[in-house]
Specification:
Elements: H1 2-24, H2 28-53, H3 58-86, H4 92-104, H5 106-110
């Protein structure tokens, strides 16, 4: 769980930097919403890893992780659709770029690991 805390910190830092950059460009709402979507994704991932690690049966732990992937995929799609429908067209790029860079931040956390759960 310590590694997931590190991932949350790295991704939150990347999100805050992107919000600051887009604030200077006059588009802070899009970047903030992209950061919100990224943090929802990380928090759900953290929660499901904790839930999967506490199960006694390995098969039920794997099932929790698979169901989490499906739920996160649907939730992220809904959040993107809702956000992009309410924000101006000019805010779409900051939403997507902030979210993508936050997810790429996970690569810093994976350095030196063989599995995601290490």
């Amino acid at each position: 769980m310590k590694n997931l805390d590190k991932a949350i910190k790295i991704q939150a830092l990347i999100g805050l930097v992107m919000v600051m950059i887009y604030s200077l460009l006059g588009q802070p709402a899009g970047a903030a919403y992209g950061m919100f979507i990224g943090m929802v994704n990380v928090w759900m991932l953290t929660y499901t890893f904790q839930k999967a690690s506490t199960t006694e049966d390995p098969k039920s732990g794997i099932l929790v992780l698979y169901m989490s992937a499906v739920i996160r995929f649907v939730l992220l799609a809904v959040l993107f659709i809702l956000g992009l429908s309410f924000l101006d067209e000019s805010q779409a790029f900051p939403v997507v770029i902030t979210f993508v860079l936050m997810q790429l931040g996970k690569l810093f956390d994976l350095k030196g690991k063989r599995r995601l759960t290490d």
